Amino acid sequence: DMMAPAQDCLQYHTAASGTIATFNWDTSATTVSSSQYHLSSQYYDICIRRTRSYCSVCFSPYISGSTTGIASSYGVGASSLAPAQTAAIGVLCTGITTQPAAAGYGDYLEIANLQPSIGTAGSVVTGTRICGAFFNAAATPQTTHATACSFAIPFKVGVHFDEEESIKASPIASPDLMKAENDPAATKGAGYGYSGFYLNYWQNAC
Questions:
Q1: Residue 47: CB atoms within 10 Å
Q2: Is the predicted pLDDT of residue 149 greater than 90, yes or no?
Q3: In a 3-state reduction of DSSP, which class is residue 90?
Q4: Which of 21, 98, 123, 136 could, after both became Cys, cross-link 87 (CB 3.0–4.6 A)?
């Protein structure tokens, strides 16, 4: 059945463009509340049906904060490097949250061959995990959100949220930004690391 989703797809989206979000995200809100928490112990796939003659799918946050303290709609685990909140990819997204001394990298998304910007069909990216306070697939840690795309078929986003969150008392000192998921958006546009995600997606023609 060509209309049926691939195996193990808990969410299945059939439009060429739209939005995807973690369970428990209030998609009616136009801003991101500090009380927006994702569910814990979540391990599932979000699948997007590939439209005929389309070869890639791109993602970016649906809500983008433009000032410091106004969060964007992507926050998956703690940031990767102090003192700034940053995006994190690959091995930095360990899938393990440890307290109190280490880091909150227990949550991540898995998107095969995720590339910065539109990417190219012939490129192969070995790292598939993305986490942190910014959605950005660049190789070096970034402090802004950016479109990221994948040519991997089927179009799929793996959600991996462990059972814990790394929450620290405020104010959070800059050396601990990579440990805590509840920093109040210290960097412009950063997301709350415990919030999850609400992303735009769109497919691109071959």
A1: 22
A2: yes
A3: helix
A4: 136
